[in-house]
Amino acid sequence: MSQILRYFLGFILLLATVGLATCQSMVKADPVRDIEDALAVTVNKS
Amino acid sequence: MTSFSDYRKPKRFDASKLQQYSPRGLLLYFLPMALVPATVFALGKGNLWAILVNASGFALYMLAAWCLRTGLKAESARIQSPIARVPKWPLKKLAAIITAVTTGMIAWLGARHTLPVALLFAGGAFLGMYLSYGFDLRPRKKLADAQGYSGDEILRMLTESSQTIRGIEQANKKIRNVELNQRIENICAIADRILAEIESDPRDIRRARKFLNVYLDGARQVTEGYARTHQQTQSEQLEQNFRNVLETIESVFQEQHQKLLEEDAFDLDVKIEVLTTQLKREGIL
Predict the structure, then answer these.
(1) What number is the ipTM of this complex?
(2) What are the structural domain ranges in chain B?
(3) pTM of the entire structure?
(4) Cβ atoms B112, A30 nearer than 8 A
(5) What is the mean pLDDT of residues B180-190?
(6) C-alpha dist (Å) from residue B232 to B33, B132, B174, B227, B228
(7) Which terminal residue of chain A has fewer beta carbons within 10 Å of its beta carbon, N or C?
């Protein structure tokens, strides 16, 4: 495997795992999401 | 204070400086930045568990990034100089393990994936670290005893000599003369090659002992002395004397290296005496 391909694959893997996990963690912690969820429940009830 | 004239003088290219500012390994400092707002959001919601997970995750990523950068710098120094000190811990491998564990933890506890999926995240991060940065070079094999010296003694002598060469390089940075800088760089490069030669075959230590003890130290004294003096006074005679000495040092270093390569048992004592005499005559030693 050429060195550049190896670096590229490593970069993609790091981006996909570390980047994705941290971003998803941020989304789960996002307070806006809670408000949206609460609004959706209210709309459904009405 | 730096005077205007200093900016006009040519600056030499320094490969080690380039390496010092290499961006390699910085990615790991930037990738987990999303954990900062994640921690703030968790703080806003008063979710203690999320605060702990995100904040500790961020701290662990920073630790991994530091380990990785330190490991990469040590590896670069080791490639440039075979005698360079090797870190006690396999820092690159440690960085990969910390990154994998932290990614798994964040995926499981932060992003709330199932445990098998979190393990896949961890495995992917570990593989990514390996592919991007590799693992640490294998530790240097212990030097064999030779010529009445133990392996540790030989390694200590080589390490001290390597430090002497780095001292010459430091003094060279203070000298503002491209031609002399180039000559000193050549001398340091040859000296590094001689050390590498001794490391690969410690039996050469007897023949190179005087080179390590007398010559190399003499070269450092001369260079440091000139670097100190020429900042205070500009003398063409002094510069010419220094140039002559450097020429002699360079040629004898080359000869020493050649002798080691040829495994010629010819003793260089006489030539060393000649150089010492010349150094004294030029008033530098």
Answers:
(1) 0.77
(2) 9-133, 151-281
(3) 0.60
(4) no
(5) 88
(6) 50, 49, 12, 9, 7
(7) C
Q: Identify the helix (H) or strand (E) that includes residue A25.
A: helix A20-29
Contact residues for B114 (Cβ-Cβ < 8 A; gap 6+) = B108
Nearest to A29 among B54, B129, B131 (CB): B54
Contact B132 A7 (CB under 8 A): yes
Q: What is the pLDDT of residues B16-69, one digit of tens each?
A: 555 556 788 899 999 999 999 999 999 988 889 999 999 999 999 999 999 999
> What is the DSSP track for B220-285?
HHHHHHHHHHHHH---HHHHHHHHHHHHHHHHHHHHHHHHHHHT-----HHHHHHHHHHHHHTT--
Q: CA-to-CA distance for B176 and B173, rounded, in angstroms?
A: 8
Of B110, B279, B79, B242, the closest CA to residue A24 belongs to B110
- Are A18 and B103 a contacting pair at CB < 8 A? yes
Which of B38-52, B56-70, B96-110, B148-162 has the weakest average pLDDT?
Answer: B148-162
